[in-house]
């Protein structure tokens, strides 16, 4: 418990507001790396995922890419890109690594969301005269948004944890405190920075969970409620068991 109390004291110490890397600046940098990387990855993966889900072409490639991404060592990828692009481009190299790690879950969420739409819905949209683009953006995309948000949620959590590795190649983010703490054997600093990363991940996960519920179309929610109503009525009619 002393280590946890020391870590909390380290977080709220006035010294964290000064120095070469103040704590608020480190948190902001950590979030900036996360959001920029996820936005770039989303700009690449979402259109590709929608195209795959709508046409059915390239699905095998997307599945293989998503599976292969799980085997890529994040730390090795960051260091490799730093070596390839040069130490003068460490920010670009780190961001590129984070983007590459974020693309597979977003791609999977995008095409899975479109594929999950029932064929009768798509056929009904075509039967009323909608074009392929209209079917995609008026039927498939709105109904597939929850799964897409799920992919963004997974990618954001992966990136916010992986951005910690940027502390090994530059004095950025909360990872800097972990690397520095290892060097000077300050375990309260290591744990304090790790706790802040956990808090960021939990907060972002909660926000995406709320968003995932909000984007469910109202008609779908109403349909689920009406489908569940007969089951609830049947459960209410079942008599309670009697005891001897």
TrEMBL record:
The keyword Membrane applies. The keyword NAD does not apply. This is ABC transmembrane type-1 domain-containing protein. It is a multi-pass membrane protein. It is found in: Cell membrane; Membrane. The lineage of its organism: Bacteria, Bacillati, Actinomycetota, Actinomycetes, Micrococcales. Residues 27-208 form the ABC transmembrane type-1 domain. Pfam families: BPD_transp_1 (PF00528). Signal peptide: none annotated. It comes from Cellulosimicrobium cellulans F16.
